[in-house]
Every structure is written in C-alpha cells, then in structure tokens.
Amino acid sequence: MQEELLRTYNVLSRLNDSCQKKVISQEELDEQDSNFDDLRKMVVELRDILSKLESSDMQSIDETVGTLLQLHLKFSDYIWHIDQIHDLVKKLAGNYRDSY
Question: What superkingdom heads the lineage (predicted)?
Fold first, then answer.
C-alpha cells in the first residue's frame, strides 16, 4: 500500500503540473513529501509490532494487550496517511477541469 500511495502522489503531482492554475499548492506537495518520510518509518515500526505479536507469549495478557494497542495506534497513523492522499485526490478531482 505504501507504493500505491507514492504512485498516487506522483500522478497527482504530474496532473497538478499540467494545470494552468495549480490546484495543489507547492506547500501541500512539500508537506506530503515529508509525510512519506514518516510513513516509511511507520511501516518499519508496524512490521516490528507484528513480529513482536507473532513471537509473543500469548500467556502474558498484559504484554499482548499492550502490543495490540500499539498495533491499533499504528493502523490509525496509517489511516491518517491514506486520508492525506485522499484529500489531495478529492481536491484535484473537484478542481482539475476548471484549472486545466
């Protein structure tokens, strides 16, 4: 999914460049570019949490619940990243015709 988000960003950026009046500001593009650095780190953390769950002693309920909560938070972060790209898609879709 990380690759698809990056590909989407690249397509949106290319489409935005083709507009006479830019729909997505350079500031928004720069912010999203910075978000991708955070996403890459988050994916590594997500993998670590999953590995921890896969190898955990399921008898330790407190540890398992704590790790599940970490997983929940990482998925919330992941959803946030998807929402950020989705907002750019909606913005471009709604304004592309008038800006081309």
Answer: Bacteria
